[in-house]
Structures are given as structure tokens and as C-alpha cells.
Amino acid sequence: MLVINLSVGTEKRGHLSVDEPTINLGLEGIYFTKSEVCKLDGINGRLYYRGYPIETLSKNSNFEEVCYLLLYGKLPNEEEFNIFASALKSESELPEQVISIIKDMSNKAHPMDTLRTAVSALSAYDNDVPDSSIDANMRKSVRLIAKTCSIVATIGRFRNGESYIRSKPNLSFAGNFLYMLNGSRQSQQNEKILDIMLMLHAEHSSNASTFSTLVAGATLSDIHAAVTSGIATLKGPLHGGADEAALAMMRAIGRPDNTEEYIESALEGKKRIMGFGHRVYKTYDPRARIIKVYLESMQDSSSEEVRNLTSIALRAEKLMVDKLGKTKGIWPNVDFFSGPVYTALGIPGYLFTPLFAVSRMPGWCAHMIEYWKSNRLIRPLEYYSGPIDLEYIPMENRS
Ligand SMILES: CC(C)(COP(=O)(O)OP(=O)(O)OC[C@H]1O[C@@H](n2cnc3c(N)ncnc32)[C@H](O)[C@@H]1OP(=O)(O)O)[C@@H](O)C(=O)NCCC(=O)NCCS
Questions:
Q1: Is 279 in the pocket of ligand 1 (CB under 6 A)?
Q2: Residue 302 confidence (pLDDT)
């Protein structure tokens, strides 16, 4: 951890002349803790959950198993898996009062604001809230994962003027999300693709929302408070909001032939192209590679709209990689191809970021439980660069 020594230099009345320490804006490049949850290799474009490469997990596993892996640090045997998966199903029910909150906020607030409020409200209906043991935090994590999924599907239903429906015990986690959103079972292919998207978004080391989860939890608040902070942080377009923004750009481009001109002119105007660039990856995001393959494989069964969006996305990707990839290290990230995939699954743009929160919930909880094992309040320093020892002038004498 970087230590900034503020005792060097001298301070004079009205003027600060302390030697300025090295400041890492945005805490860039700072290690603040050790973790065994996730390894992110930004140079080689590799991502591991608990030591397993993301490529292996997305090919062989499922979201329920990945949740178990992240929380417990190992793959479950069959019995452990069955108990865990059925707990996720049985905890998916929402308290009536939380359904009312969602209903009331649905047409007034941003879906991320509704989600943040509803998840925070869950604490009022969870008897384990005052219990900070690991067992209780595991139980609360399972409830948070299950109920966040139901909350997001219900936000979608209320925004469509439809009513809350309960999950079905015979469906997978991904299958239930689609069922609760649409009111009918979706194709197995769609359930599988959503399952893969959930796995790919489940965890990503000390990203902004996970860090913010830890900052809140490290005060020894509780897991509901901590993940509520994570949801608040995920909302912004520099983080979880990028997939919706990237899709909006593809829609604004309109036709594939407009792509190059649109991107060139945005770059000339110093605009950021959403879904590109990353604080840690200076190469192709491995999750984007996987999503791109699935997006391409869906083309034959996709609507004209999705084929059009895909064609725009592929042309934009080529141009950006040629222009900024090798020269500036700006490559597609997980958010770039997600929009067309979610569109193909019938998920509306306003639910992209809330759905990201559904998938990231196990990552937030796993990190929080791990951090609490050797908790230390997170409290970095800021270097004060304003004047000091100013004279207090009474209000009547101020100009
Ligand atoms: C994710 C992100 C915030 C990381 O940014 P960062 O590490 O702080 O990088 P910086 O903001 O310092 O950018 C470095 C340079 O790359 C450029 N750049 C970064 N992302 C860019 C993008 N998406 N499009 C165009 N230029 C970009 C910056 O303008 C800057 O250029 P300069 O050196 O000429 O000023 C940034 O890449 C971004 O805004 N991406 C778009 C949002 C997004 O997709 N977020 C999801 C991340 S998973």
C-alpha cells in the first residue's frame, strides 16, 4: 500500500508549501488488499474466478455453480449444488412491501434507483440482518442473489404495465429471470445464453462497485448496506451503464454503412465510444471475446434489428481496434457486444444495468465476506491543496 508522508515540507500562514506527495488519481495502480476471489490479468487479457479461467467456466458451468464457487471458494459436489440451487429458488420470493416499492417507483425513477431502493428495503424483512457471522452472511448472500433477480424482472414487468409473477421451481436461475420478466418460458437457447452472460458478469476483482461495496462494509455496517452502495456505484456510464450507452450509440448509427463516419466524427469530437477501454485491460477483454462469439452464433435465429445492430457493432469494433487498439490500448470491453445479445433475448435497454447488478451480486457478496475476515476500515488520504489559516470575516463585512 502506498504511504504518503504529509509531515515533510513546511506550512506557512495562508499558503501551503508541503511537498506534494505522489497522487494516484482514481487510486489507479494501488493495491489495497489481498483476495482469492478473482484474478484479472490486464496485460494478457485473462480472467479467473477462484483460479478457474472464465473461458472454462462459461463453457462448462452455470450461474448457480459460479455463485457457489465465488462464495465458498470451491466447486460444489452434486449434493452441495442441489442444496444451493434450491435455496436460490426458495429465496426468490419478494416481500409484499418491496413489491409495492417497486410498483410505486417503476414509472418515476431510473430502474437502477428502483433496484437500489428495493435491495436496501430487503433488510427490513431479513431476520439475519443483526447477525454478522459468516453463516448468516452466506444466508443473506443467497437471499440477495435470488431476490435481486426477482426485483429486476419485476421492475421490467411493472414498466410494461404487467403484474408481479412468482418464479417456477423447475427453471434455472436464468430461465426464471426470463420467465418472470416475460410471463412465459423462453427458448432453451435463450436461457443458456443469458446463463453465460450472467457468468461472465459475476465477478471482476476490485472494480468500482466492488470497491464501493467494501468501503461501505468495512465500516462494519452490514451486507445489505454494502451491496446497496455497490448498486449505486454500478449505475454510472463509466461502469455498469456502458452497455446501455453502447446500444444507444449503435441505434443512433442506424445503418451499418453509417458506422465508420459516425465513429470517426465522434473521435474527432473527443467523445468516448462506450464499450471500449478499461482501467485494467490494455488488451481485448476476454469476456468481450466470448460474447462476440455467441452474438455471431445467434445471427441465423435473430431478428432483422439484431442482425443490423450486430453488423454495426462488428464494423465499429474493427475500426476502433485498428485506430485505438494497438496504439492506445483501447479495446472492446464486456459492455460492447452485450447490448445486441440482450436485445436478441428480448431484454429492454433500461434493464441492462440492473441485470448487470443481478450477475455481480455474488461477486460483491464473496468479496465482502472475504474482506470481513481481516477487516480494516478503508480510509485513504487526500492531499489538501487549498489555503489555510484564513481570517474569519463577519458576514456584514464580506463583499
Ligand atoms: C473505462 C474507462 C473509464 C477507463 O478509463 P481510464 O483508465 O480512466 O482511461 P482514461 O480516461 O485515462 O483514458 C486514457 C485515454 O484513452 C482515451 N479513451 C479511453 N476510453 C475511451 C473510449 N471509450 N473511447 C475513446 N477514447 C477513450 C481517453 O480519452 C484518453 O485519451 P487521451 O490520453 O488522449 O486523453 C474509459 O476507457 C471509458 O470511459 N470507457 C467508456 C466507458 C465504458 O465502456 N465503461 C465500461 C468499462 S468495463
A1: yes
A2: 86
What is the predicted pLDDT for the residue at 10?
A: 36
For residues 312 and 231, membership in a common domain is answered with no
CA 392 to chain centre: 46
Distance CA 62, CA 342 (A): 18
Ligand 1 center–CA 279 separation, angstroms: 8
Q: Is the CB of 234 under 6 A from ligand 1?
A: no
163 in Cβ contact with 183 (< 8 Å): no
Query: Is 50 exceeded by the pLDDT of residue 125?
Result: yes
pLDDT of residue 18: 59
Our count of domains for the chain comes to 2
Greater pLDDT, 349 or 6 = 349
d(CA 142, CA 44): 33
Question: For the domain that residue 89 is a member of, what is the CATH number?
Answer: 1.10.580.10
Q: How far is the CA of 272 from the centre of ligand 1 (A)?
A: 7
Contact present, 302 and 346 (Cβ < 8 Å): no
Is the CB of 241 inside a 6 Å radius of any atom of ligand 1?
no
> Which pLDDT belongs to residue 34?
97
Report yes or no on 395 lying in a domain: no
In this structure, is residue 45 part of a structural domain?
Answer: no
**Does residue 115 sit in the same domain as residue 212?**
yes
For 300, left (φ over 0), alpha (ψ -120 to 50), or beta? alpha
Kindly report the protein residue whose alpha carbon is nearest to atom 2 of ligand 1.
Answer: 278
Task: Kindly report, residue by residue over 71-80, the tens digit of the pLDDT.
Answer: 999 999 999 9
**What are 367's three cell numbers?**
468479496
Same domain for 254 and 215, yes or no, is: no
Nearest partner of 195 among 106, 85, 278, judged by Cα:
85
Among residues 126, 278, 285, 367, the one annotated as catalytic is: 278
**Whether residue 239 lies in the annotated active site:** yes
- The answer to whether the CB of 335 is under 6 A from ligand 1 is yes
The answer, yes or no, to whether any atom of ligand 1 lies below 6 A from the CB of 288, is no
Please tell me the least confidently modeled range out of 89-93, 295-299, 379-383.
295-299
Query: What CATH number does residue 297 fall under?
Result: 1.10.230.10
Give the residue-averaged pLDDT of 64-74. 98
Report the chain's mean pLDDT, rounded to a whole number. 93
* 185 part of a folded domain: yes
Residues 271-281: tens digit of each pLDDT: 999 999 999 99
Where in the sequence is the domain holding 294, given as residue range(s)? 242-344
Residues 68, 193: Cα–Cα separation, whole Å: 20
